[in-house]
Amino acid sequence: MRRARSAGRSARAAVVLLLVTGAAAAQVVPAACDTQPSTLPAERFNDNGDGTATDKQSQLVWMRCATGQQWRDAQCTGSAARFSWDEARRHVERVNKRGDAFHDEWRLPSLRELASITDRRCATPRTNAEVFPGTPSAGFWTTTARPRGGDAGDQVFVLSFGAHGVAAASKVERHHLRLVRTGP
After folding, report:
1. Topology of domain 31-182, per CATH?
2. β-bridge mates for residue 52, sequence order
């Protein structure tokens, strides 16, 4: 019995090590949710039929896929791209200028807005995978700057849809994007 417990702990430690070191980053892990009622039920969203969903509570319209992924057959396919802060802002400007996503008022979300689409009962990713399929369990840029103090003026908060939660990130780091706009 003791040997079986030890082997189970070793296997869990190996999985945690792989996730922390990024060795399994290319693999999309299905959402692992417990049996508690959802803190982000799918019924809270209207499927707009174009790869976006409108949050009925906040009236925010979200891209269902992370930037870099494509919406096909009710799934997000491909790989989510990573951007520096400046690249992220330029990407949003290009999307709006070209009208790639049917509207011209897409933006990066604030920390509060992005946190509104987390599901505390889920992990890997910490969101409703029915509404936001294929979400990487990694950091996403927000527009919320870290309060100044020391060298913090060049940092912005990122929110991870994995176990890491919220962290301040240097603007040269590379993180994912999920675009939002005020709707309808």
Report:
1. Mannose-Binding Protein A; Chain A (3.10.100)
2. 63
DSSP helix, strand, coil percent of the chain (3-state; round to 5): 25, 25, 50
Name residue 144's amino acid.
Answer: T
Beta-bridge partner residues of 180: 62, 107
Cβ contact 106:141 at 8 Å: no
Written as tens digits, the pLDDT of the chain (184 aa) is 444 443 433 333 333 322 333 333 333 444 566 656 778 899 999 999 999 999 999 999 999 999 999 999 999 999 999 999 999 999 999 999 987 778 889 999 999 999 999 998 887 899 999 999 999 999 999 999 977 665 556 899 999 998 888 999 999 999 999 999 998 7
CB distance 45 to 131 below 8 Å: yes
